[in-house]
Amino acid sequence: MADGFASPAERAAFIAALPKAELHLHIEGSLEPELMFALARRNGVAIPFASVEEVRAAYAFSNLQDFLDIYYQGMGVLQTEQDFHDLTAAYLDRARADNVRHAEIFFDPQGHTARGVAFGTVIAGITRALDDARERHGITSKLILCFLRHLSEEEAEATLDEALPWLDRIAGVGLDSSEVGHPPSKFARVFARARSLGLKLVAHAGEEGPPEYVREALDVLKVDRIDHGNRSLEDPALVARLASEGVCLTVCPLSNVRLCVVGAIADHPLRAMLDAGLHATVNSDDPSYFGGYVNANYQAVADALDLSRAELVELACNGFTGSFLDAEEQAPHLAAIDALA
Ligand code: ADE
Ligand code: ZN
């Protein structure tokens, strides 16, 4: 065992006890099959599965697009404000069980407005659950509106227009969906407008796309964080830049295995990222589809890479320092991690 742990059970207990921030979580990707069936029944929506087991069996993906096809189909059961509330409340209950103290949550409004569900319905349901969780569990949160990059920049602009009445509830914008063929530069103008509105900026880059997309996200979109970023490691000059600028990477180990971004968890580059001085964090991405919430992601890499106590502490601290909490808000969480270390 790596330093300081007498047994795998002791390391698991340490992971469970660490206060964590989750910075890369698509709320629609937390839709568990059981809730999918319940909402399908409640809303009279047909789904092409006979049982929860059949749904889980369909979650075998060879790449990002395989997953996205099923992910967009799954979110079709989400229709009412109450549905978005229940989805978000279920995630926050799971997050609390994993000792997540702060969550920065993505949502994909275009996946809903395209089906005739109003933007206001989506965000009213999500924010009601976020407010409840703060009251009930003390979990703080921020919301990040993602543009779907397989759609046009004009459609992203129209989505940002719809968000304007809700800007007090939206911390930032992001970019997700099919990466290859849809470089960050496609969204230069809408990201510039979001920046001028005072929003934080993030983008998925270097998940399947080349290191050049990570550079574009930094140079053209001027993002504050990179989501995934794995393929940055192919470009030593980019790695040096990410390290020297302290850019946070929101890494998702189980997602990377399930979407074949890495061959196996034992090949995951997380330790290489830390060794290169990158500010990596551990996140669950779409936990219902990829086999685990945040603690399962920590556990999988800790076991496969024999992560030490110091490395786990660094990852947990990076979650808070890479968050959009201000330094005063981060401080008690960092102190709580320090007290465990
Ligand atoms: N949408 C939901 N999960 C995603 C991922 N891992 N990559 C790109 N788009 C996504
Ligand atoms: Zn993602």
UniProtKB/TrEMBL annotation:
<keyword id="KW-0862">Zinc</keyword>
<keyword id="KW-0378">Hydrolase</keyword>
<dbReference type="GO" id="GO:0009117">
    <property type="term" value="P:nucleotide metabolic process"/>
</dbReference>
<feature type="site" description="Important for catalytic activity">
    <location>
        <position position="228"/>
    </location>
</feature>
<dbReference type="GO" id="GO:0000034">
    <property type="term" value="F:adenine deaminase activity"/>
</dbReference>
<feature type="active site" description="Proton donor">
    <location>
        <position position="207"/>
    </location>
</feature>
<dbReference type="GO" id="GO:0008270">
    <property type="term" value="F:zinc ion binding"/>
</dbReference>
<dbReference type="InterPro" id="IPR006330">
    <property type="entry name" value="Ado/ade_deaminase"/>
</dbReference>
<dbReference type="GO" id="GO:0043103">
    <property type="term" value="P:hypoxanthine salvage"/>
</dbReference>
<dbReference type="InterPro" id="IPR028892">
    <property type="entry name" value="ADE"/>
</dbReference>
<comment type="function">
    <text>Catalyzes the hydrolytic deamination of adenine to hypoxanthine. Plays an important role in the purine salvage pathway and in nitrogen catabolism.</text>
</comment>
<comment type="similarity">
    <text>Belongs to the metallo-dependent hydrolases superfamily. Adenosine and AMP deaminases family. Adenine deaminase type 2 subfamily.</text>
</comment>
<feature type="binding site">
    <location>
        <position position="204"/>
    </location>
    <ligand>
        <name>Zn(2+)</name>
    </ligand>
</feature>
<dbReference type="Pfam" id="PF00962">
    <property type="entry name" value="A_deaminase"/>
</dbReference>
<feature type="domain" description="Adenosine deaminase">
    <location>
        <begin position="19"/>
        <end position="337"/>
    </location>
</feature>
<dbReference type="GO" id="GO:0005829">
    <property type="term" value="C:cytosol"/>
</dbReference>
<keyword id="KW-0546">Nucleotide metabolism</keyword>
<dbReference type="InterPro" id="IPR032466">
    <property type="entry name" value="Metal_Hydrolase"/>
</dbReference>
<dbReference type="GO" id="GO:0006146">
    <property type="term" value="P:adenine catabolic process"/>
</dbReference>
<feature type="binding site">
    <location>
        <position position="285"/>
    </location>
    <ligand>
        <name>Zn(2+)</name>
    </ligand>
</feature>
<feature type="binding site">
    <location>
        <position position="286"/>
    </location>
    <ligand>
        <name>substrate</name>
    </ligand>
</feature>
<protein>
    <recommendedName>
        <fullName>Adenine deaminase</fullName>
        <ecNumber>3.5.4.2</ecNumber>
    </recommendedName>
</protein>
<feature type="binding site">
    <location>
        <position position="24"/>
    </location>
    <ligand>
        <name>Zn(2+)</name>
    </ligand>
</feature>
<keyword id="KW-0479">Metal-binding</keyword>
<dbReference type="InterPro" id="IPR001365">
    <property type="entry name" value="A_deaminase_dom"/>
</dbReference>
<feature type="binding site">
    <location>
        <position position="26"/>
    </location>
    <ligand>
        <name>Zn(2+)</name>
    </ligand>
</feature>
